Amino acid sequence: MTTASDIERKPPVTSLRRKDLLGIADLSPDEIALVLDTAEAMKEVGTRPIKKVPALRGKTVVNLFFEPSTRTRTSFEIAEKRLSADTLNIAIGTSSVVKGETLADTALNLEAMSPDMIVLRHSSSGACHLLSRICRSAIINAGDGMHEHPTQALLDAFTIRERKKQLAGLKVTIIGDLLHSRVLRSNIQLLTKMGADVWVCGPPTLIPTDVRRFGVQATSIVDEAIVDADVIMLLRIQLERMEGAFFPSQREYFRVFGMTESRLRLAKPDVMIMHPGPMNRGVEIASEVADGPYSVILDQVANGVAVRMAVLYLLSGGAENEEAA
Amino acid sequence: MKKLLKGGRVIDPVNGIDGVHDVLLDGDRIELVGRDLPVDGATVVELPSDLVVCPGFIDMHVHLREPGQEHKETVATGVASAVAGGFTAVACMPNTVPVNDNANVTLLILAKAAEAALARVYPIGAVSKGSNGELLADMAELKQAGCVAVTDDGHPVKTALLLRRALEYAGMFGMPVIEHCEDQTLKGDGVAHEGFYAASLGLRGIPGAAEALGAERGVLLAELTGSAFHVAHMSARASLRAVRKGKEAGVRVTCEVAPHHFTLTDEALTAPIPYDTNVKMNPPLREAADRDAMLAGIADGSVDAIATDHAPHHYDEKHVEFDRAPFGIVGLETAVSLSLDRLVHSGLVRLPRLVELLSVNPARILGVQGGSLAPGERADITVLAPDLKVTIQASRLRSRSKNTPFDGWELRGGVAATIVGGRTVFVNPAARVAV
After folding, report:
1. Interface contact flag, B316 A145, Cβ < 8 Å
2. Exposed (0-12), middle (13-18) or buried (19+): which is B294, by Cβ within 10 Å?
3. Class of residue B352 by CB neighbours under 10 A (exposed 0-12, middle 13-18, buried 19+)
4. ipTM score here?
5. Of B198, B113, B98, B210, nearest in space to B155 by CA
6. Which residue from A25, A210, A214 is facing B195, i.e. has the nearest CB?
7. CA–CA separation, A155 and A43 (whole Å)
8. Residues of B tagged active-site
9. In chain B, which residues have their Cβ closer than 8 Å to the Cβ of A129?
10. A126 interaction partners in chain B (CB closer than 8 Å)
């Protein structure tokens, strides 16, 4: 017999009802929570003696990387293997693309071999949108230009939630090269959606236009940004930015924005220090902070596998898919 | 052979005409405009009174791509596109391959135009040899071959000194210098307007100030030299400010705005299609305040002309990552409908002002015939159907390229017919007239 409470109870969301993961911008708070919850279960898989489940057995996943990446590519590959997917890594130097085939043609050729998912890393913002329009396969954005890096934001959120239980109400401060950072764009989307109080900080030369319209506080005064912060996330300062006159020198950057132990005292006593890597020690972060007790930088890397397993699993249909099989 | 256009609303601002009149054509010339003209053996074309007869529209900023890039457009396909869009004449930019910096290229373009025999073509020559900003092009030769103005369009003239010399030297031949205003260092490798939307999509920005610096430079040098300076495809409110200031000071400066810049904003980067390369053009779609400033400038007379910056690109060239795609969209066949819908039906300007923007002023700026229906003028006429319901279909454009962001748009107002030199070169079947 169906009761009123049964009807009122929403069926649990058990998959991402979308073909692709192009960016956090597309996700609802419920979908974000679903990924994070699923990642908890996936993390347990990694603690087993046999670190493998059959969820993606028979599925083919192509890791198509047009930019060099160690961390993200490895993390995706481990995630795929733990889910029993057949994986294939294709690393293409952007220079060889200039000489020959277009991205669309590369994608269509891969499509002809019927993969189920394509994990794409590309130097052009919007490259994943282009692929999603021409491919049947699910497209997972592993970083597109300066646009988004959604799985990084999800693993950051997972890491914060692990320690702080929830994201809502936390003061999260992001410091560094905001302008060129896809990690920033994904993180401010995610954190504001989940109710965090987000502050961004960097030299005015490296702050995107109209950044406050994203619903964040922006400042170039680092002490103001980190006072009472629950989480401080540091972004990589690419050294070639000095050539664009974005800042004068590494030394000066460190003097004004570098995260040191003494600066940290302004933050909450249980502050978490995060960095998406790769780090420039002594530029955006002092070694004693990177290696210190507040640092969760290696936890982020560890959690990356679980979060990417969750994304792959949920995009392939999640539990609904397994029930059907 | 005489032809009598009877019963339409004639708008001829130069001669102070706006009302139901007849237009009598004798061969390739206009013989007379007046009320209830006698038929006197002429072929009569009856026009419903809701059609508008006006001096032929002139698009002063078009890329015809020939010679060298015939996969994008040819002179023949370009002028077919022009007349279908209501333009009786186009001025074509010199950034062909090779650059139109000598009489051979100019004469080739004119020969192709004569062969196509649709819209008139006014070539615009390069300011500098190869448009590379080093040495002046042979402007006397260009002028004699048929060029009506000079520009290094696609890029600004490289240095202030060269622009000064170009203004002085081209001024000797009465040719204006048309400038793609943009500080190249501020533009950098930008691909979209520097604003919220580019920031959220992770696209490198081009600030409005990049254009305004170029406009300011040009206005100052036009003042210094006393020559005529024309700001091409103006998009930024600060550029308009520079032009207004120049005009108030009596400087010989004019400017044009493209339909996409008075219609769209940078929000089009995100929707309906995120990263649509058909909204990538240079100058980029600006923010709402800039778009609104362009509309205000059109309304108050600060903007002299509407020009399309018709920039055809092949599908393959546009079907790539946003930052790799070339800048530009086609515009010849959408300009009149966008202008009628967005400028006239919105109540911003009246039809006579639109005729000034699309016909009278381009003719005046370029120093070419047209813009008037006075007796003895060439019979170049655009017939508008201001209330025609138009649905833009990219696949049906006459242009060889289909790169438009307006595919599927429903607009009020279109072209009924286009007459060049007394010859009907385009009739819109949807307008149901037999011209």
Report:
1. no
2. buried
3. middle
4. 0.92
5. B210
6. A210
7. 11
8. 309
9. 274-275
10. 201-203, 274-275, 321-323
Angle at which helix A297-315 crosses helix A29-45, to 10 degrees, equals 110
In the block, residue with structure tokens 């924005």: A257
Q: Which two tokens stand for residue B262?
A: 């008075």
Match 């390369």 to its residue by tokens: B277
Nearest-by-Cβ selection for B202 from A102, A182, A211: A182
Helix (H) or strand (E) holding B46, with range, is: strand B43-46
Q: Which of B202, B316, B320 sits opposite A147 (nearest CB)?
A: B202
pLDDT in tens, A137-180: 999 999 999 999 999 999 999 999 999 999 999 999 999 999 99
Among chain B residues, the shortest Cα distance to A101 is held by B320
Q: What is the CA radius of gyration of chain A?
A: 20
Q: Which tokens hold the place of B67?
A: 């010679």
The answer to whether A148 contacts B194, with C-beta atoms less than 8 Å apart, is: no
Where do runs of H (alpha helix) occur along B181-327?
184-187, 196-201, 208-225, 237-248, 259-263, 288-300, 315-318
Q: Please give the Cα distance from B308 to B11 (Å, whole number).
A: 22
Residue A210 phi/psi, 5-degree rounding, is: 55, 35
User: Is residue A8 pLDDT above 50, yes or no?
Assistant: no
A185 in B contact zone (CB under 8 Å):
yes
Task: Supply the DSSP symbol for B199.
Answer: H
- Residue A101 has a CB neighbour count (10 Å cut-off) of 13
Taking CB atoms and an 8 Å limit, are A124 and B324 in contact across chains?
Answer: yes
Structure tokens at B112: 């192709």
